[in-house]
Amino acid sequence: MPMSKKQLVIEGIAALLILLFLYASVSKFLDFETFTGEIRNQPLPRSWIPFLIWGIPFLEVAISGALLFEYTRLFAFYVSFILMILFTIYTAVILLHFSPESPAPAAG
User: Fold this and answer.
1) In this structure, what is the dihedral angle of CA atoms 43, 30, 17, 97, given to the nearest 10 degrees?
2) Domain range for residue 11?
3) Please, what is the angle between helix 49-68 and helix 32-40, to 10°?
């Protein structure tokens, strides 16, 4: 039975999110020292840092895995949405200088 347009769109969005989150997590794992340094440079409570350093890449992998299966896909879409909203809010706070301290620019 051919896929409906709705199902095709859902599959396409899931595939794009899988690519996004796998790319992001693999790049963090491959250059873990830089990623760790960047997280430590953020204006976040120090007690959060160990959880963020390990939690973010593993959450990205977990979301990718959950998006592969139809019975976990809806939950993964919700978690993806929440993660993207949190990232957007964090980025806005930094760019609009709502935080008293901003991270230093990356060397390069």
Assistant:
1) 20
2) 5-95
3) 120
* pLDDT tens-digit series, residues 20-38: 999 999 999 999 999 999 9
Q: What are the C-alpha distances in Å from 101 to residues 11, 93, 104, 108?
A: 41, 10, 9, 21
Check residue 97 and give left, alpha or beta (phi > 0: left; psi -120 to 50: alpha).
left
Please tell me the total count of domains within the chain. 1
Instruction: Round to whole Å and give the CA distance between 5 and 11.
Output: 10
The answer to whether residue 107 sits within a structural domain is no
* pLDDT, tens digit (0-9, with 9 covering 90-100), for 76-103: 999 999 999 999 998 888 888 776 665 5
**Looking at this protein, which amino acid is placed at residue 6?**
K
